[in-house]
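This section describes the prediction task in plain terms. A model, or a person checking by hand, is given the sequence of a single protein chain and must write out its three-dimensional structure as a string of tokens. No templates, partner chains or ligands are provided. The sample shown here is typical of the held-out split.
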Amino acid sequence: MSTVDGTMGRRLGLTGARYLALSALACLLLLPLVWLVMSSFRPAGEIFANSHQFGWRTFVPGRLTFENYLSLADSGFPRALLNSLFVAGTTMLLGVLVNSAAGFAFAVFEFPGRKLLLVLVLASAMMPFEAIVIPLYQIIRWFGWVDSYRALILPEVANGLVIFLFRQFFVGVPKEFYEAARVDGASWLHIFLKIALPLSWPVVVTGALMQFITQWEAFFWPLVAAPSPDHTLVQIAITRNISFEETSWGRLFSSTTIACLVALIPFLAFQKLYLRNIASSGLK
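The expected answer:
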């Protein structure tokens, strides 16, 4: 009995030490983010006053102020924030429909070249975006979409990784479900919308979150495709606080804090589904 108790005690001790080490590492990694957030509440002249030493004054402002956040109202940041919410939200909704339909087709239908096409879809997810930016810009220019919401949204709707996640899920659904519906006279569109898609809601959440964060963090393509102030996205607006002549550190930190917070809220809400689906997709 004592041997069992000793073994359990060692296991609990190792588990506690592991969690303690991971917690310490997490706190260490979060220190730059904490400094960023707290510096956004400092007056402009005090942001770097205690940055040369490591102590509690480095992270705790001597005087709190909201002037950095209030100054954003006079800039183009609120418009950029709304633009990013619109672009990311629209891409997310369209992406769920397009990518789930493509994943359903790959999982259910037999057609010539299906495996090759799936390989190409996965290859598109692995290809660096910089390699296709020039051809993509030529295409949207031919369509007359330069400097428009269509240029920001449509190229990002189809996502090879999200298609793969849906395909992996639909492969695991028993085909008897589809066959029974077909016997009852249901069309494939009805089966997809009423049977397959409702079953895949964990993948829907995961794919939607992936596409939302991707669009929220987009910088290079919006800078190329939509340079006008009317279509500026949040990441572009953040960088406009930096110039060769002067950098507005307070506005830079406050705008970055808002952008991080908006992206963090949906991720924290659905992180369990996100991580579980990413991990399980390769096991099916």
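For orientation: The chain has a mean pLDDT of 85.
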